[in-house]
Amino acid sequence: MNTEVIVSELSYKAVRSSGPGGQNVNKVASKVVLTFDLANSLGLSEEEKERSITKLKSKLTNEGILILTCDEDRSQLKNKELVTKRFLELIQKALVVAKERKATKIPRSVIEKRLKDKSSQSEIKQNRKKPDV
Q: Which of 17, 84, 85, 133 has the fewest C-beta atoms lying within 10 Å of its C-beta?
């Protein structure tokens, strides 16, 4: 993953933020929308593209474009920094290869303990019954 190339491929758009805020919301475009064409990126290898596309499938459009927004701050610059930081974290998480799970055998002591606990619980319940006369 080449971070400099990926950051240069990002495109930003400033939009008016939604929600309360009065005059500020009506006049200032502080919300930042980040778009990244994941399918045609030059900063990722083919293997990295495939892995990230499968992991970020729910966040991608049909064309393979990732769209992130940020309107947490009143400053457009801070929102741009936040959304870029969030994007880089998202890409790095998507590129992590999960360790293959190894099936392990259940230890004999654990099986014996479970059976012993079951029998003691059964005995407790048997002792609650009225004796046969």
A: 133
